[in-house]
UniProtKB/TrEMBL annotation:
The keyword RNA-binding is assigned to this record: yes
InterPro entries hit by this protein: Cas_Cas6_C, CRISPR-assoc_prot_Cas6
GO MF, any single term: hydrolase activity, acting on ester bonds
Protein name: CRISPR repeat RNA endoribonuclease Cas6
Organism annotation: Halarchaeum acidiphilum MH1-52-1
Biological processes annotated in GO: defense response to virus
Superkingdom of this protein's organism: Archaea
Pfam families: Cas_Cas6_C
The family this protein is said to belong to: Belongs to the CRISPR-associated protein Cas6/Cse3/CasE family.
Keywords recorded for this protein, A-Z: Antiviral defense, RNA-binding
Gene3D superfamilies, alphabetized: 3.30.70.1900
Domain CRISPR associated protein Cas6 C-terminal: 144-252
PANTHER family associated with the record: CRISPR-ASSOCIATED ENDORIBONUCLEASE CAS6 1 (PTHR36984:SF1)
């Protein structure tokens, strides 16, 4: 968790993704991770927006959450932020005031809970998804993946985020743990769509895309240790694609462990 204090008044930058990513990549310059920039493989880095959302006054306190299954990656970023406390996101100028570690876990088998995506989930449906679910691409999508929209139903969204997590599992999880595609049962028991929205995003210097993303509340019940690892990996890496731009960052917002009442579970997260 990165605690920030604003150096000056600023309008909140809604198209913050490229600039915020840039600050983290600056922290990785000269490290063993620098060569991974743009190599196409999952980075294993997810982060929230600067929150709370809204225009900024000098002295305001804001926060950014950063997650990764790679402890050395987080340690490298943290070391840079300790020595270089300037944290600018475009015209939003901050200084780092504190860094702290959070121990986030969906809970042991039998735990029920809800994961909420704090930033939009980036999901594109490829040709095999479109064929399986009978999705006709628009004229503009004919030769490119289709952004998921509510009209496509939940099933292709579910399959796309599971396929994406399988790829991350193969990169970051121990080989003896079966991946989310190799087990019976879905990642989540419930998919509650909060909203879908479009926004322009700078994906690299001089290249801007209009993307469609969605926010969700996702209910889960931890079936076993493998499922627990899958859900925790989703928290560490983000859901869906383009996580290194800040998409798909997720938090546990409700959790009830075996033997607890729902109220006790809510108090545990307070």
């Amino acid at each position: 968790m990165v605690d920030l204090e604003a150096d000056a008044d600023a309008t909140y930058l809604t198209n913050y993704h490229h600039k915020l990513r840039g600050r983290f990549w600056r922290a990785l310059e000269g490290s063993a991770f620098e060569s991974e920039h743009g190599d196409g493989a999952p980075m294993g880095l997810a982060f929230s927006n600067v929150f709370p959302w809204g225009d900024i006054e000098e002295g305001d306190e804001r926060t950014v959450l950063v997650a990764s299954p790679r402890e050395s990656l987080l340690a490298t970023i943290a070391e840079d932020l300790r020595t270089d406390r300037e944290f600018n996101v475009g015209e939003m100028a901050f200084r780092v005031t504190d860094l702290s570690a959070l121990d986030v876990d969906v809970g042991e088998p039998g735990t029920r809970g809800t994961i909420e995506t704090a930033t939009g989930v980036f999901v594109r449906l490829y040709e095999r998804h479109r064929e399986e679910y009978g999705i006709e691409p628009s004229r503009s999508d004919a030769d490119t993946p289709t952004y998921w929209r509510p009209a496509h139903t939940v099933e292709p969204f579910r399959d796309a985020i599971t396929d994406n997590l399988q790829r991350k599992h193969e990169r970051f999880a121990p080989s003896y743990v079966p991946g989310p595609r190799a087990v019976d049962g879905d990642l989540f028991e419930g998919y509650d769509l909060i909203k879908t929205y479009a926004l322009p995003v700078t994906v690299t210097q001089g290249v801007e895309l209009d993307v469609v993303v969605s926010k969700w509340r996702l209910d889960y019940r931890v079936r076993d240790d493998a499922h627990r690892k899958h859900l925790n990996l989703a928290l560490d890496t983000g859901l869906g694609g383009r996580n290194a731009l800040g998409f798909g960052f997720a938090n546990v917002v409700d959790r009830t462990r075996p033997g607890e009442t729902e109220l006790e579970g809510e108090d545990a997260l307070a």
